[in-house]
Amino acid sequence: MQQIEADGQGGLTTGLSLYAMQHKAGDDTAAEATLLNLQQAYPSDYRPDMELAFLYADMQSKKDAAARDYTAVAACYDTAKQKYQQAVANGANDMSMTELENLMAQLRTAGWLN
After folding, report:
1. Is the separation of the CB atoms in 56 and 21 below 8 Å?
2. What is the pTM (predicted TM-score) of this model?
3. What is the tens place of the pLDDT at every residue in 33-81?
């Protein structure tokens, strides 16, 4: 990510694509770092927070049930939801946010979140 930005090829879309490749390759540590960098570089955009929520949910789902903690998922969702409201006001309609809302409802129904 830093090399891409240093080469002048950075940007939110590029960063999100890099994250997707890292996550698909199973490198959750690098994927998380990429999203955290994007979160700082684009503080008003909901997408890094939304993708972090998905990433953290996926990471938790790989753990034994007794070791799961979806607190970070909820925190990222809450932040993404707040930022997304502004995007909606500007005409955005992101099906991924709808998917995240459905995931959060499932986690609440299953008793993982209050």
Report:
1. no
2. 0.89
3. 999 999 999 999 999 999 999 999 999 999 999 999 999 999 999 999 9
Q: Please, which residues have CB within 8 angstroms of residue 14's CB and are 6 or more apart in sequence?
A: 4
CA distance 43 to 53: 15
- d(CA 61, CA 73) in angstroms, rounded, equals 11
Tell which residue, 22, 1, 20, has the closest CA to residue 11.
Answer: 1
The Cα 53–Cα 51 span in angstroms is 5
Cβ neighbourhood burial of 28 (10 Å; 0-12, 13-18, 19+): middle
Task: Kindly report the three-state secondary structure assignment for every residue of the chain.
Answer: CHHHHHCCCCCHHHHHHHHHHHHHCCCHHHHHHHHHHHHHHCCCCCHHHHHHHHHHHHHHHCCCHHHCCCHHHHHHHHHHHHHHHHHHHCCCCCHHHHHHHHHHHHHHHCCCCC
The whole-angstrom separation of Cα 14 and Cα 35 is 11
